[in-house]
Amino acid sequence: MRYSQLYENAATDVAVFYGGRFQPMHVAHYKVYMDLVNKFGSDNVFIATMLAKNADPHDNPFSFDEKRYIMTSMFNIPENKIINTQPYRPDIKQIGKSPENTALILVYSKKDAGRLSYSSNVKPYQDNIELAPSTEVAYVYVAEEKDDGRSATDFRNAMRVDINPQEKQKIFKEFFGNFSKEIYNFILDKLNDSTVK
């Protein structure tokens, strides 16, 4: 049975939200984003992130605007694809789509998806089915992991410690996939480290 048969209306549009803290986004996150763009189309894929009011500044040093700045600068992700919204229940209206006719697909890693409990309002995503609108159900898409052991926590810690600047730059390049002196200095400054001249 198709899921849409359980609901009155089938969605005519889709919104895919790749959610996370992204403190900061790294090259593996970007690869997941691009896989989603290739699968669902660039007009339909968005990054959902925010900074919780009670977020620990040590573990969450970057504001929404700073995370967006890093994403646009390092990965050329368009600003209008990075949405300041709750990753687990994003606001579709912020992207100019109607919740009444737009299917909502939430993207998680295998680890994060394993923590979810499915219900009549949250279902696993399947290819080639008619989708119901977000007012009735949300779908969970489990993304293939591409992190190769990358960790934003390890990255932040490496940028905070007193090590050889060339080693720090190497870690930066491995984390992001390329090097930007501007972003490198911005991150060092934000993490209360010294900047490269």
For this entry, give a set of tags.
197 residues; alpha/beta; six-stranded parallel sheet; 6 helices; 6 strands; disordered N terminus; disordered C terminus
Provide an overview of this structure.
With 197 residues, the protein is α/β, with parallel strands linked by helices. It has helices at residues 27-40, 64-75, 110-113, 152-160, 165-176, 181-190, and strands spanning 13-19, 45-49, 82-84, 102-108, 122-124, 138-142. A 6-stranded parallel β-sheet has the order 3-2-1-4-6-5. The longest helix is centred in the first third of the chain and has 14 residues, at 27-40. The chain starts with 12 loop residues before the first strand and ends in a 7-residue tail after the last helix. Residues 1-5 and 193-197 have low confidence and may be disordered.
Summary of the model, kept short:
Helices cover 31% and strands 15% of the residues. The protein is built from 6 helices and 6 strands. It is α/β, with parallel strands linked by helices and 197 residues long.
Structural class: alpha/beta
Q: What is the N-to-C succession of helices and strands?
A: EHEHEEHEEHHH
> Looking across the biggest beta sheet, what order are the strands in?
3-2-1-4-6-5
- β-strand percent reads 15-25%
Shape label: elongated
* Poorly predicted ranges: 1-5, 193-197
Q: Give the helix proportion (percent range).
A: 25-40%
Mean pLDDT: 89
The rounded distance between the terminal residues' Cα atoms is 62 Å
Radius of gyration: 18 Å
Q: What does the largest sheet look like?
A: 6 strands, parallel
Tally of strands? 6
User: Treating each run of at least 4 consecutive H or I residues as one helix, how many helices?
Assistant: 6
